[in-house]
Write a structure and sequence with these properties.
- The protein is α+β, with helices and mostly antiparallel strands and 93 residues long.
- The chain folds into two domains: 51 residues, no CATH class; 35 residues, no CATH class.
- It has four helices and five strands; from the N terminus they run E-H-H-E-E-E-E-H-H.
- It has a three-stranded antiparallel β-sheet with strand order 1-3-2. The chain has a two-stranded antiparallel sheet with strand order 4-5.
- The longest helix has 16 residues.
- The protein is elongated and about 45 Å long.
- The protein starts with a strand and ends in a 5-residue tail after the last helix.
Length: 93
Amino acid sequence: MSKSLVKMRFSPQAIGEGEAAINRVKQGLVAQFGEANVIYDNATRFFHVTAVKPVIASTADNKGWKFVTIDSEQLVPMLEKFIPKEILDLKVN
């Protein structure tokens, strides 16, 4: 399991304008990750979300990493199409 900090910014086209739009997104993130794990930075307009999720990472050069989080068991059949089952079985539940 990996504890990750994710920063995300949503465009006004995606969520709408104003405080009401920001609050809707924040409520959704809080419902999924918990109040203590979601912070909104008004100056940068980024949400900071801390989450503990199983993560698989890969790199060819030890610099440009690609990450896949396994958010639910429903993703496993799709992930098995490009990640060997032996690797997926290593994830910690």
